[in-house]
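Hi C.,

You asked whether I'd gotten around to modeling the 331-residue construct. I have! Everything is below, sequence then structure, no commentary in between.
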Amino acid sequence: MRTDIIRAAAVQIAPDLAGRAGTIERVLNAIADAADKGAEFIVFPETFVPYYPYFSFVQPPVQQGTAHLELYQESVVVPSPETQAVADAARKRGVVVVLGVNERDHGSLYNTQLIFDADGSLALKRRKITPTYHERMVWGQGDGAGLKVVETKVGRVGALACWEHYNPLARYALMTQHEEIHAAHFPGSLVGPIFGEQIEVTMRHHALEAGCFVVNATGWLTEEQIQSLHPDPKLQKAMRDGCMTCIISPEGRHLAEPLTEGEGILIADLDMKLITKRKRMMDSVGHYARPELLHLVHDTRPAETRVAFEAAPVLQPPMYSDLDEKETRHV
């Protein structure tokens, strides 16, 4: 039975809406702050760099062109100087970092989660498999290759973004790989109080069902930022509340008072032996499973738009120069 104690941090801060440089600086400062508090595992909000595309929630598609192009300009290429800066910070402080970014891959944007191990290596790059509602105007789709649990300094880590947690088979794909710590993140400052309530239910349920710890980070917008995103007070209401930064045990309990407003870093200690304590009673992918009745088929192949095959060798026609005339006629 494991007896490790892992200190986790969930970061709820505002991005820099001016672009990725300012937001990356906030990420690096938060890593240092959390590490100073003893954190070994740090989670940031959904697509935190450069910022979540709030504009897509409050603007009709015909008016989104300028904001969408600005997001293209400020999004992150992987690898890049920005990802290297986060990797260097993770290595310097010996921490595992889960960061949400808008990833630019040539002409497409993706909602991407990056897991940096404590040695600075990029342990996982995965893309949200299905953007939600308004997000489909912004991001492309991920694939099954990203539904992967990775070994890190703090244990086996899996990650999903936002409403991917409403896809039970996506969650089950990670559960079958025996994730110990689940990193989750949502945009925050969206929809209203009901969004925070829904997040809490979802995070607690996954912790219970998976028998793992859940570290969830939601974003935050200041009042000035909300007003800058849209002048209509009615639409500004759609960018308030909806925050639920929390850390949940395998028994479904909060390990610290959740953050539902303002900026802050939530800190809690994860007692890893609670995983076995929970799974002794109910292991959804072990003794409580019935694979002969119900099982998951998971296509782990990366989705490729081009699959190249080498050309087959060209067969030469037979040569008859050595055949006599009679043999040639018979042929």
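If it helps when you're writing up: The domain at 5-281 is CATH 3.60.110.10 (Nitrilase/N-carbamoyl-D-aminoacid amidohydrolase).

Thanks,
B.
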